[in-house]
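Work Package 4 report. The design task specified in the project plan requires that, given a folded chain encoded as structure tokens, an amino acid be chosen for each position. We show below one input record used in the internal validation round.
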């Protein structure tokens, strides 16, 4: 499992005084974080802006187009071979520990596969073995590492990406007309473009003060990681932003996990039916 104490020379990096959120620690730094190998130095992929600053920084000297500190323990570049995306993209899905941004293990793996030198092939085997034995997709799913992005979705997105999940979770789906007619807002939670959960909000024609959470669900394999909590928090904020005064929802009486989640977030039972409760939260 990951342990920041495994990674050498982070203090040196910190002491340089650069904004850490523009600096990606790549390759062996990440492998060391996950206890896969020990790092002999720290390789950085930095934004062009940071690189330009480092170029003028007397603590760095050029080695080819790369920059390195005098003790050669920290190396920086703004451009790496074999990467398809930009450093800004990889920073978004980095593993952030104590303010340091580590390249995600998946990105290290992709890079090493592409480089394909003998040592890369050896590292690919180590990373793949680690990923297989750490069932929880360890590098992605630990809560503090979740790079969860919320996005509004339209019917086309729903049809292509969420309709099956909706059917599986709620045994009902929207058609184009009901989607347009009913919904105030439809939000999907994404991890690296993968939809992991969603919610939809409806308004009540008979009471403009009340917003209803119509469906809220998390893809089964991503449950128990705090995504449900983040979705409900986001839904509440959205209802507040639309100036609703109350948010309601219906939940099956035997859905203990959902009821616990809603109660924890300040919902109270306002109506009891045979198999369902109606819950409400004052905003
Ligand atoms: C309800 C649901 C959205 C929760 O999503 P989730 O991402 O697993 O929830 P979280 O990880 O944020 O956990 C929320 C709370 O439920 C608890 N919880 C989650 N899974 C649990 C489980 N299997 N058993 C017991 N408690 C559980 C968590 O411990 C947490 O409570 P805590 O903060 O007090 O510890 C998800 O189970 C789901 O999609 N269910 C099917 C659809 C559904 O029923 N939606 C609600 C209809 S109204």
């Amino acid at each position: 499992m990951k342990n920041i104490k495994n990674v050498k020379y982070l203090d040196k990096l910190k002491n340089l005084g650069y904004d850490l959120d523009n600096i990606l620690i790549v390759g062996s730094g990440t492998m060391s974080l996950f206890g896969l190998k020990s790092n002999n130095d720290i390789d950085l992929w930095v934004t062009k802006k940071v690189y330009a600053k480092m170029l003028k920084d007397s603590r760095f000297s050029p080695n080819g187009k790369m920059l390195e500190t005098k003790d050669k323990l920290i190396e920086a570049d703004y451009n790496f071979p074999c990467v398809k995306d930009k450093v800004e993209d990889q920073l978004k899905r980095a593993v952030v520990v104590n303010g340091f941004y580590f390249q995600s293990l998946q990105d290290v793996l992709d890079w090493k596969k592409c480089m394909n030198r003998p040592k890369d092939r050896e590292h690919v085997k180590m990373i793949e073995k680690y990923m297989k034995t750490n069932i929880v997709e360890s590098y992605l799913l630990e809560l503090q590492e979740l790079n969860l992005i919320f996005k509004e979705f339209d019917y086309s997105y729903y049809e292509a990406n969420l309709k099956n999940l909706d059917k599986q979770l709620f045994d009902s789906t929207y058609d184009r007309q009901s989607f347009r007619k009913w919904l105030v807002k439809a939000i999907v939670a994404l991890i690296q473009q993968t939809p992991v959960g969603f919610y939809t909000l409806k308004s009540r024609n008979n009471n403009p003060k009340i917003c209803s959470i119509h469906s809220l669900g998390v893809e089964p394999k991503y449950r128990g990681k705090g995504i449900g909590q983040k979705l409900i928090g986001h839904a509440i904020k959205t209802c507040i932003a639309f100036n609703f005064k109350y948010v309601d929802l219906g939940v099956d009486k035997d859905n203990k996990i959902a009821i616990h989640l809603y109660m924890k977030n300040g919902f109270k039972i306002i109506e009891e039916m045979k198999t369902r409760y109606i819950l409400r939260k004052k905003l």
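Residues 169, 216-218, 223-229, 249, 251, 255, 257-258, 260-261, 264 surround coenzyme A (CB under 6 Å). Validation will be extended to a larger panel in the next phase.
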